[in-house]
From TrEMBL:
Signal peptide (from-to): none
InterPro entries: AAA+_ATPase, P-loop_NTPase, Signal_recog_particl_SRP54_hlx, SR_rcpt_FtsY, SRP/SRP_N, SRP54_GTPase_dom, SRP54_N_sf
Gene3D superfamilies according to UniProt: P-loop containing nucleotide triphosphate hydrolases, Signal recognition particle SRP54, nucleotide-binding domain
Entry protein name: Signal recognition particle receptor FtsY
Function: Involved in targeting and insertion of nascent membrane proteins into the cytoplasmic membrane. Acts as a receptor for the complex formed by the signal recognition particle (SRP) and the ribosome-nascent chain (RNC). Interaction with SRP-RNC leads to the transfer of the RNC complex to the Sec translocase for insertion into the membrane, the hydrolysis of GTP by both Ffh and FtsY, and the dissociation of the SRP-FtsY complex into the individual components.
Subcellular locations according to the entry: Cell inner membrane; Cell membrane; Cytoplasm
Quaternary structure and interacting proteins, as annotated: Part of the signal recognition particle protein translocation system, which is composed of SRP and FtsY. SRP is a ribonucleoprotein composed of Ffh and a 4.5S RNA molecule.
EC number: 3.6.5.4
Gene: ftsY
Keywords: Cell membrane, Cytoplasm, GTP-binding, Hydrolase, Membrane, Nucleotide-binding, Receptor
Molecular functions (GO terms): GTP binding; GTPase activity; signal recognition particle binding
Length: 296
């Protein structure tokens, strides 16, 4: 269901209000529909495209709530088609190096923990690396996730060089036959230039060991920040390079629609969605299922 309870309820209720009974689709109803899509954070461009497409099919015709939902779901699904990507570290080279980037609070640590757990369940040898060497609490939290997952953990005292840690971790993973290395990183935005430099340095040193690494750079975005997620995608996408997006907290917001403009703005596909705080609350992104759930 892609966890969209709140977004789904909001949009579902609104559709029900606008289209109370079967009636010809007129401009007033189209305007309300477009407004509703914008409110759900789909963004003005997607909202306009979806509404136009809808108008082309149905203007002047009798439509009821069910048809609206079906047409909307199809249109949103089309907007997202081709923007869905797969994440499977076990189908790639070994050790498979995954870098997690994103601002503090976006859900990096939690997402990494969920992935570590899944990989361990599938029998993989996993190394979790606390590359956010600035926040002691973040290191501790990650360690707890790693221990619970049964993954090995590597961290350093606060203030240590993150790139040095990443280098040693990848070296260790090579020497000791790990399948996957999951590297958490810092996400403090107070000093954006400093953070970008740090992330680029991690990538540079990891490439010294394996020129193909990192095999994945997952950008973790929090759906509850709505259209701010777009700005974050822009910064990290342009400055660091991203291979896939994880959209978290889709369970906790009525702004889940923001996934649509993010998917369209980004060069990289949406790969995973976070739908809760629990260990099993991470799902492969499914564009059609997402679209169906979003419209209530
Ligand atoms: P980080 O600073 O980027 O590492 O973020 P954390 O992983 O520490 O997550 C910040 C908060 O968001 C924590 O309280 C998590 O439990 C919570 N969180 C992460 N992912 C999800 C999600 O998909 N749904 C919900 N409801 N909460 C989430």
């Amino acid at each position: 269901t892609q966890g969209l309870t709140k977004s789904s309820k909001q949009m579902g209720d609104q559709i029900a209000q606008v289209f109370v009974a079967k009636a010809p689709l007129d401009q007033a109803k189209l305007d309300e529909l477009e407004e509703m899509l914008i409110e759900a954070d789909l963004g003005p461009h997607s909202a306009a495209r979806i509404t136009e497409r809808f108008a082309a099919e149905k203007f002047g015709k009798d439509v009821d709530e069910r048809e609206i939902r079906e047409a909307l779901s199809a249109a949103i699904g089309d907007e997202l088609s081709g923007r869905q990507g797969e994440f499977d570290p076990l189908s790639g080279p070994r050790p498979y190096i995954v870098l997690f980037i994103g601002v503090n609070g976006s859900g990096k640590t939690t997402t990494l923990g969920k992935i570590a757990t899944d990989l361990r369940r599938r029998g993989a040898k996993v190394l979790v690396v606390a590359g956010d060497t600035f926040r002691a609490a973040a290191v501790e939290q990650l360690k707890v996730w790693a221990e619970r997952a049964g993954a090995d953990f590597m961290g350093r005292p606060t203030g240590s060089d993150a790139a040095g840690l990443a280098f040693d971790a990848v070296q260790k993973a090579r020497d000791e036959g790990y399948d996957v290395v999951l590297i958490d990183t810092a996400g403090r935005l107070q000093n954006k230039a400093g953070l970008m430099e740090e992330l680029l340095k991690i990538i540079r040193v990891v490439k010294k060991i394996d020129p193909e690494a990192p095999h994945e750079t997952l950008l973790v975005l929090d759906a509850t920040v709505g259209r701010n997620a777009l700005a974050q995608e822009n910064i990290f996408g342009n400055q660091i390079g991203v291979s896939g997006i994880v959209m978290t907290k889709l369970d906790g917001t009525a702004r889940g629609g923001v996934l649509v403009p993010v998917a369209q703005a980004s060069d990289s596909p949406i790969k995973l969605v976070g739908v809760g705080e629990g260990v099993d609350d991470l799902q492969p992104f499914d564009a059609r299922a997402f679209a169906r759930t979003l419209v209530g």
